[in-house]
From TrEMBL:
It comes from Geodermatophilus poikilotrophus. One of its GO terms (biological process) is regulation of cell shape. GO terms for molecular function: LPPG:FO 2-phospho-L-lactate transferase activity. Required for morphogenesis under gluconeogenic growth conditions. This is Putative gluconeogenesis factor. Pfam families: CofD (PF01933). It is found in: Cytoplasm. InterPro entries: CofD, CofD-like_dom_sf, Gluconeogen_factor. NCBIfam families: CofD_related. GO terms for cellular component: cytoplasm. Belongs to the gluconeogenesis factor family. Residues 344-366 are annotated as: Disordered. Keywords: Cytoplasm.
Length: 366
């Protein structure tokens, strides 16, 4: 489902061309950042969202109702909302958290709206999401990564210096994200959940698939743990783009370098091929090490200034869109008749790091 009213543009020979078909995997603020960038490039955009959240409003709702946790789905929907004043106002309403101290306190309005629509549609989450997409004039579509709520189960290293080899079994997204110690292994329960056919169709017809940024163990990797998703990605002809985080996440990836994030991701890929890795140039200390890790994955590295300038660890959507266009160049070369959309000034988008240019990165620390 593309943007309402979008029509293909004409190529140099006057023939109609289509925009790239894009699928973005993730959850929470990381996926919202990716969608804010991708929507500047294509209206043919599908967000596939994690459904393992068990904290806050989403946790309360999934414990009380037979529905998927709505929070990450809501954030993806509002990230794709149209640009006119009415739809932006509606997006702000869906994001608004109710105040007070009663039973509704802390619930975002959008979580309740989604839950109500799912109930109205007899439990059909995808119909409810499509309804909200139309309500928001969304530039794309939002789908859940599985048709049932998921639980994350992790083996976390002990922080006891006298028994460092001992691991603890931690269950639940919030508990995993806040438990000290490195994650050794992450699993899903159920291990082989059902996946909506529309998700598999989106992957099969995609030109580009993106993973990240976001909470590595609880928002990014879970997609690769779903057998049907991983198999669909392995069979797809889409280019796979990974957007690395700007810094480690406290409690989940403490002390991780960009290379370690990539190694962990690679260990979960199965038969999925990586093609491009995007990293913020100021966040990389060991450029040579990252380039080596990227090459080991068989991918190319795009280093670009993709962070905001305000000193907060947040991706700038315009700059990230520029780096994503760099990643799309190989797609355009391989498949004629695709448009790339609006341009970003070239200084924002340095080319891929190439052999002989692996020296020290720009100032900044991971």
């Amino acid at each position: 489902m593309g943007a309402p009213g979008h029509a293909p543009s004409a190529g140099p020979d006057g023939a109609a061309v289509r925009p790239p078909r894009m699928v973005a995997f993730g959850g929470g603020h990381g996926l919202a950042a990716a969608l804010a960038a991708w929507r500047r490039i294509t209206p043919d955009l599908t967000a596939v969202v994690t459904v393992a959240d068990d904290g806050g409003s989403s946790g309360r709702i999934r414990r009380e109702m037979p529905v998927l946790p709505p929070g990450d789905l809501r954030m993806a929907l509002t990230a794709l909302a149209g640009d006119d004043a009415d739809t932006r106002r509606m997006a702000a309403l869906l994001q608004h958290r109710l105040g007070g101290s009663g039973v509704l306190a802390g619930h975002p309005v959008g979580n309740l709206v989604l839950t109500g629509l799912v109930e109205m549609h007899g439990g059909d989450t995808v119909r409810a999401l499509d309804d909200v997409c139309r309500l928001l004039g969304a530039r794309g579509r939002v789908l859940p990564m599985a048709d049932v709520p998921l639980d994350l189960v992790a083996q976390v290293e002990s922080t006891d210096p006298d028994d460092p080899a001992r691991a603890r079994t931690i269950r639940g997204q919030v508990a995993i994200a806040t438990t000290p110690g490195r994650v050794r292994e992450i699993l899903l329960s159920p291990a082989d959940p059902p996946v909506h056919p529309d998700v598999l169709d989106a992957i099969a017809t995609a030109d580009v698939v993106s993973l990240g940024p976001g909470s590595w163990y609880t928002s990014v990797l879970p997609h690769l743990l779903v057998p049907r998703l991983r198999d669909a990605l392995a069979a797809s002809r889409a280019r796979v783009v990974v957007v690395l985080n700007l810094e480690p996440q406290p409690g989940e990836t403490d002390g991780f370098s960009p290379e370690e994030h990539l190694f962990v991701l690679q260990s979960h890929l199965g038969g999925v091929a990586l093609h491009t890795v995007i990293a913020d140039e100021a966040s990389v200390v060991d450029r040579r090490g990252l380039l080596s890790a990227v090459r080991e994955c068989g991918a190319e590295l795009v280093l670009a200034p993709v962070a905001e300038d305000r000193g907060v660890p947040r991706h700038d959507p315009v700059r990230l869109a520029g780096a994503l266009r760099e990643a799309l160049r190989s797609v355009v070369a391989a498949r004629q008749g695709m448009e790339i959309g609006e341009r970003v000034p070239q200084p924002l988008v340095p080319g891929p790091v190439r052999e002989g240019d692996e020296g020290n990165a720009a100032h900044g620390a991971w």
